[in-house]
Amino acid sequence: MHFTCPGCQKEMVVSRREEAPDFPFCGPRCRMADLDRWFTGDYSVPGEPVDGLPGDLTIEGP
Amino acid sequence: MADVRENGEYSADNIQVLEGLEAVRKRPAMYIGDISDAGLHHLVYEVVDNAIDEAMIGECEQINVKICPDNSIVVLDDGRGIPVDIHKTEGIPAVQVIMTILHAGGKFDRSTYKVSGGLHGVGVSVVNALSEWLEVEVFRDGKIHFQAYERGKPMGDLTVRGKTERRGTRVHFKPDADIFETTEFHYKTLVRRVRELAYLNPGVSLTLKDERPGREQEETFCYEDGLIEFVRHLNENKGVIHPEIIHVKKEAAGHIVEAALQYNDGFSEAIFTFCNNINTHEGGTHLSGFKAALTRSLNNYAKRQVLVKKESDIPAGDDFREGLTAVLSVKVPEPQFEGQTKTKLGNRDVQGVVEQAVGEGLARFLEENPKSSRLIIDKAVTAKRAREAARKARELVQRKGALLSGGLPGKLADCSSKDVNSTELFIVEGDSAGGTAKQGRYRMTQAILPIRGKILNVEKARIDKMLKHNEIQTIIQALGTGIGVDGFDVTKLRYGKIIVMTDADVDGSHIRTLLLTFFFRHMAELVSNGSIYIAQPPLYRLSKRNKEQYIHSEKEKEAALLALGIDGTVLVRSSDGARFEDESLAEVLELLSSLEDRAAIIQRMGIMFREYVDLRHPETRAFPFVRVMRGEESLYFYSHEEFEDYRARLVEELEREIVIADLGDEVEEAPDILVQEFRESRAISEAVEKLESLGFSLDSYFPSEENGEAVCRLEYNSSGDDFP
């Protein structure tokens, strides 16, 4: 399994899902730091720009 | 050779001397900490430290430590050799004074050694007192001077044993088994200290040799880069955050401050502090100064470079020390040691000196290495956030116990069934949501948690959607699972299904995206075991008479309305009276609707649909596929091949490759031609041809003002009441 930690962008490669207990994060530190962003309301979905063109549906941090 | 007895000066002073060493033997722990392993090995450190003192003033380059087969120890250095001349006040050779009188080391005379290690100056006399036997050889002035002792008492005078060209001191001793619980030395323990001393004293070579049968080994340590190599060694096999090892060295107010540090991707803090080569396990003033400088410098830098945006994200001291590997070494003229094991530096003035030196050095590094600095700050911010999250996650669970309602959020309309498998939690967002859902639910198994989104206007460029404050916490509480590393427990889930129900508009889909992202990141088990659902509420309810239909999308709505409109309607063409109804009418309307969609796209490209239609090829009846602008001139091509032919001709004409750009693109090079592609041309052709085959001309698409006569008229019959 191959994934990118959403916290530090580290590329992770594990042979089994069990080897990544903090999936999709690289480890507990990135998990908890991300959790705090949820707690503090740092995450938002970019919406429609004011000029009317549709925005990207990507999630982004502060 | 002077001897106390010969001189007839067997005075009270000398008796005190013996009493002094006798006291050491009576209460050894007072001098060396304890009489177990630690104390035993301390004897070696004490002797080695004397050699290091010589090294610190540049008089010694090589120190050899040897564990002999009988567990006695030899320490040999190439320093100046302990003085052998008669001591002014004691009247015996200086080496004998040092070996037999407590606190008699040269280190108490500041003119000899500016700074010195050793165990708080108790000196080698303690080693002598606690040894079954000790032999000292001094290589000095071309002679080998020798004296032997037993349990601290000289076994004869200092004698010259021969000639030598070398210089230095050799001390050979065997710890007294009457004193120590164990007299077995550990190579591993000694090698750690020997290596440490090599790091702390750059350029000095230290060799440790074990001669005990079956355990023979030898290692030599010498580091030119001292503390830098120490940190490199400590961070070996660890992922480092930045490549450089930060190094600070400053001499101020008679103190020497040196530090080396580097961050690794671990979470623990490893700061080793030394004062005059003594490992200050308990820290002290130098460590306080170092920590203060670290926190202050990094925070100042983070604020100045705006790497930390929110006040609440400013890391604390602990956060800046996560993953930090550092070695701090100070050389202080008169160190005061405090604490349980006398390994805590007490000199007040050292704190300020260290803080300033380290602060200056760090600030310089940060300015010169912005990339690494950023990584260090980011790591600390992450540490801070993780700490905050862990605290909040704990609070969420603790609050649960404190409230009568079982810690459930106030706005949760819970279900009455306790059978987890049959229950559903609807997380509902949007205007229509909360109230209606609560009214329409089946109380037994369906719970409703209304949450609110919030609009965030980011610099007025766009309107972002986010969750309102504390909504995530509310969801976690309602689910009952807890959250975070070691905090999330899927078996505590209070519902069988979690259903995300948001409005079927763009805002709703944004909130849904947020929630699903949260579940995926922090409750992945719920996603993988299929507990998360998305409700798709209908957009419209279409009702006619007593019939109802729910519509889930705009497209579905159009189709339904069209069908509704067609039902019972007849389109009559004026020119020939042709009648279109049911399927044939649906086909005409579908073609017109399709054409209308394409027309809108063409219009959006900046061309009136009427103009575009007029460009229809007179012979092939095709519509333009691409528009080419070359200077003022506009050309239209009706197929890809035609355009390629043109391009080839132009290349030939200009005798070079041509630069093509799409209209509206930003280009670096001035293009030869601009192209505008009409991707709708084929679909327009198809729709128009089909309409024509049904007898409608393209002209009739555009209402003409001159002849107001209608192309068609509609007739209705009244049979069509039902939905198709």
Explain this structure to me?
The complex is a heterodimer of chains A (62) and B (724). The model of chain A is unreliable at 51-58 (pLDDT under 50). In chain A, a hairpin with a 6-residue loop joins strand 1 (2-4) and strand 2. Chain A is of the alpha+beta class. Chain A has a two-stranded antiparallel sheet with strand order 1-2. Chain A contains 1 helix and 3 strands. Chain A is 19% helix and 13% strand. Chain B has 724 residues and is an alpha+beta fold. In chain B, strands 1, 2, 3, 4, 5, 6, 7, 8 and 9 form a 9-stranded mixed beta sheet that branches. In chain B, helix 8 (285-304) runs parallel beside helix 10 (348-368) and helix 17 (582-604) packs antiparallel against helix 20. Chain B is elongated, with a radius of gyration of 45 Å. Classes of the chains: A alpha+beta (62), B alpha+beta (724). Strand 3 (44-45) of chain A pairs antiparallel with strand 20 of chain B, so a sheet runs across the interface.
3D shape of chain A? elongated
Radius of gyration of chain B: 45 Å
User: Which stretches of chain B are low in confidence, meaning pLDDT under 50 for 5 or more residues running?
Assistant: 1-12, 106-112, 719-724
Query: Helicity of chain B, in percent?
Result: 25-40%
| Most residues in contact: chain pair | A-B, 34 and 47 residues
What share of residues of chain A is helical? 10-25%
Shape of chain B: elongated
Mean pLDDT, all residues of chain A = 78
Rg result of chain A = 15 Å
The major β-sheet of chain A equals: 2 strands, antiparallel
Fraction of residues in β-strands of chain A = 5-15%
Number of helices of chain B: 20
Oligomer category: heterodimer
- Number of helical elements of chain A: 1
Give the number of DSSP strands of chain B: 31
- Give the termini separation of chain B: 128 Å
Largest sheet of chain B: 9 strands, mixed
Distance between the termini of chain A: 29 Å
* Low-confidence regions of chain A: 51-58
